[in-house]
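ugh ok fine here u go
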Amino acid sequence: MAAEWTSLPLEDCMEAIIDYRGKTPEKTTFGVPLITAKVIKGGRIEPTGEFIAESDYDAWMRRGMPKRGDVVMTTEAPLGEIAQLDGSRIALAQRVITLRGKPNILDNSFLKFLMQSAEVQEELRSRATGTTVLGIRQSELRKVSLTLPPLAEQKRIAEVLGALDDKIELNRRMNATLEATARALFQSWFVDFDPVRAKLDGRQPSGMDADTAALFPDSFEESELGHIPKGWNVKAVGEVVDCVGGGTPSTGELKYWEGGTLHWTTPKDFSSLQAPILLNTDRKLTDAGLAKISSGLLPSGTLLMSSRAPVGYLAISAIPVAINQGFIAMKCNASASNYFMLNWCQSNMAEIEGRATGTTFAEISKQNFRPIPMLLPSKELMAAFSVRVATLYARITANLRESQTLASLRDTLLPKLLSGEISLKEAA
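structure:
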């Protein structure tokens, strides 16, 4: 550590600590977005579906108003998730604490990265209490030691690390747009039947060439699903794609896990996905472990859907992968591609969830999933759709891989910069 760096307890670096624990606001369906612990993930605040009434805002926020640049931290369930506020009007829920550095001592952007560092995270855990859920009291949080370079250097470090975060965020937004484009195309072609309706009215379907337009019929017919494009078929999911499950080799048998290189996934891996593509898994299996799973190693391109805890996480695996018992894996084909099935599942999730059973938690079995009726276009139209959206998902995958590389670089630089092990010049 450089000689001019100092170490101070957190409370000596703070202009404000705003703590809303011990209170629960009355929630509404619209109003001011309520930032809860569950939407602070991976350094960012995800969209929230919870709000408080505008009329309650001033009274609720009387302990202190958040400002642009403030750092928010979850104090339990989970402990230690960090993000920075962008100045949007928000309300803070319990289990979220706001930190604001003293202007002449601690840069808030540097604080965000500092709180994410392994050293600070470890101290948070060491000062936490609880058996079922770890949580930290404000009195203990105030004692956490922060190592600070001079303010100008803090800002330069935050700028270097922030540039990586900015690019990762840009990729996330690009992927959200690309995925929305694919969903909109599926909705138009296979739910709203826009091209068929256009031809029925004597119009040329918009947004497509003549060869693609010729693949759509110009009339409807009756089916068990109601009016459908003429010549299209209604089939059960299980007749169209091969649906398989997975398993978990004994976790007490080291030979199944130790030194494993084969990807094995659980729904937990899906909870942090920012796009429906699986690039990696938290745990790996050995060949001996894989032999204990009847479905074996599923090929790249397999569509995975969590069948419980919760129902409905979806992703196409970009890697060969084995699955645990919390999934239904769909081996797709020319009749229904993985891109088509991904969008079909997203569009029909209410139907899928409605067929789930269970008292402790909902679960949809393969037996209940396979009979769900689905509408299929011709193989030629299926191929045309798949080719068109394949470029979108290829770009999504490339952006995810780039973000993975950038995150790895950031996480490598973070402790080295924060400890002074490498200089800013070396980092650049």
